[in-house]
Predict the 3D structure of the following.
Amino acid sequence: MLTAGQAISQTPAPATNVPFVLPLADGSTAQARLLPTRDGEAWLVYATSSGKLGIFYLSPTKPDPGPNPPPPPPPPPPPVPTKLLIAIVEDPAKTTQEQRQVLADPAWRQAAAGKHTQLGIIPNDVIDKSTGQPPARLVPFLDRAKLHNLPWIMFADQAGTIMWEGPVPTSTVELINLIKRHGG
């Protein structure tokens, strides 16, 4: 018998396959047996004196694990880089007049210059005269842009990781908004 403040470390298991008298809700009694199944579960099978059968499925209670811990906080947003490279690769022979006007507009350059240390419009066929090859630092941008319709704009962090890329917008306002959204 337990006293106040006493706890059981393990729930006692009931005896199985032993007949006992089960009181019923209508005031009558029935002969019953507890039949084991698996994993500590059991069937409570009983029969009344008039021959009616009843079955209950019983499962042991599991200890309460306590309240669910709160979900972890969401990860912080990625930091906005302090230095951003804006690289635009274009094919000068195929760039439309509308695209040229956007790229030549000083308004987007001023929006970028306040925070960003490098920006450049790179011809897709640029060659370093000393090596006869494209400049090594531009090759990753040139290679990425080859997969898309030019002009293609890329935002990269200090390590050169591309943070965003896409087609050059068709208006200066769109380009300034793009710089603010992806570059701070």
Observations:
- The mean pLDDT is 84.
